[in-house]
Amino acid sequence: MRLPMLTAVIFFAVVCAGVSARGEDTTRAALSEFTFFTENYPPLNYEENAELKGLSVDLLLEMLARSNVPVSPTTIVVVPWARGYQETQNRPGTVLFSTVRTPAREKLFKWVGPIGRSNIVLVSRLSSNITIRGAEDFPRFTYAVVQHDRGEQALFEAGLGRSSMVHTNSSMFAAHLLARGRVDLWAYEKIVYLWALGKLGYNTADFEVVHAFEDAHYYFAFNPQTDDAIISLMQAALEGIRADGTLAAITRQHLPEMADDFLPE
Quick one: DSSP state of residue 215? Predict the structure, then answer.
């Protein structure tokens, strides 16, 4: 009786393995059809000379490669942040990155990460001599913000209304608003505002950080209807990349002087 029992156990195991493999193949096939939205947000993700670059872009491509998911020319699409933010919430099969995970956004997406730390700051022109002691000073000033960006959200959470903000669709326009004196402050990511001002030809030494909000973390934000098997597949790929040191290597390549501050704990 033992031999037939052993044969049955082996047969059952083989069947289960086959079902599992087919399930993984289905998951990979579904993920290969996804669209990943991003914005020009150097050095994390940006387009230069028709080529996609950045820390988060390299990380995403490595995650897909380790998951055996093919990448097509339309896999990653650069769009204004507000458009990507709305489409990813409402259109199945989409992802938005790099997205700061916050309590207000928690149920809007499914999350894979963290991939790095976010430090949203308030930037002023040095010549403005602005001092901010706390949130009680915020109503005295006007702010440049990118629509649906974490900087905008931080100001809302501090109690400011839209009337205090000038909304834009790009960091470049926000940088111009600050540099030309159209607003008092710009609420944005610390590592990105410096790049934007420098790219536009402004002397970054003419600007200063006058306030920093509480740190958060960047993630890949998936449409909320995404199958949990896809989330698990991508999270496992990221964990492997973190464990073998590849995440640290990618981060040091793009942020050589700030890698230790950016890497998630």
Answer: P
